[in-house]
Amino acid sequence: MKCDIDGVIVREIKKHDDRRGWLAELFRHDELPPECFPVMSYVSMTRSGVVRGPHEHKYQTDLFCFLGPGMFRLYLWDNRTGSATYGRKCVLEAGEAHPMLVIVPAGVVHAYKNVGTVDGLVFNAPNHLYAGSHRTQPIDEIRHEDDPATPFRIVD
């Protein structure tokens, strides 16, 4: 899969199966641009049919891993006025059937919807601390989902 938005990186995640289960490398420093190096990580669970976002960050780059369970439709919009791909939209399918790493740079609006039939897990390893050091700074998030007039709409 490919996304034609500058700075968005999409990589297939290879699951190595054996009789015990599977193992997958999520990221390696020798395969990431230094500006994307994670400083924290978290995992979230999203129920079937539920959407998270759309929102964007001014400074933070997200490193999402969609491994399963669950399948997600990821929506990306380039909202960076100086970008060569400003205004471009990209939609990806990722999750159990298509394990994927997606790096979403600051200024790219993003949302995802669990389009599967089971609760789904998403791993994120952003390059900035949520709410800054010791959670003492404003949260770097512009929540478009709270704006009824937003141009960033989830359309299936």
What does this molecule look like?
With 156 residues, the chain is mainly beta. The chain is built from no helices and twelve strands. It has strands at residues 9-12, 15-18, 21-24, 42-46, 51-56, 62-66, 71-78, 89-95, 100-104, 108-114, 120-124, 142-143. The strands form three sheets. Strands 1-9-6-11-4 form a five-stranded antiparallel β-sheet, with no helix packed on it. A hairpin with a 2-residue loop joins strand 2 (15-18) and strand 3. The radius of gyration is 15 Å and the shape is globular.
Question: What is shown here, in short?
Answer:
The protein is mostly beta strands and 156 residues long. The protein has strands at residues 9-12, 15-18, 21-24, 42-46, 51-56, 62-66, 71-78, 89-95, 100-104, 108-114, 120-124, 142-143.
Q: How many beta-strand elements? A: 12
Helical amount among residues, as a percent range? under 10%
Spans with pLDDT under 50 lasting ≥5 residues? none
What general form does the structure show?
A: globular
Q: In this structure, how is the largest beta sheet organized?
A: 5 strands, antiparallel
SSE arrangement:
Elements (H helix, E strand, L loop, with lengths): L8 E4 L2 E4 L2 E4 L17 E5 L4 E6 L5 E5 L4 E8 L10 E7 L4 E5 L3 E7 L5 E5 L17 E2 L13
Antiparallel strand pairs: 1-9, 2-3, 4-11, 5-10, 5-12, 6-9, 6-11, 7-8, 7-10
Search tags:
156 residues; mainly beta; five-stranded antiparallel beta sheet; 40% strand
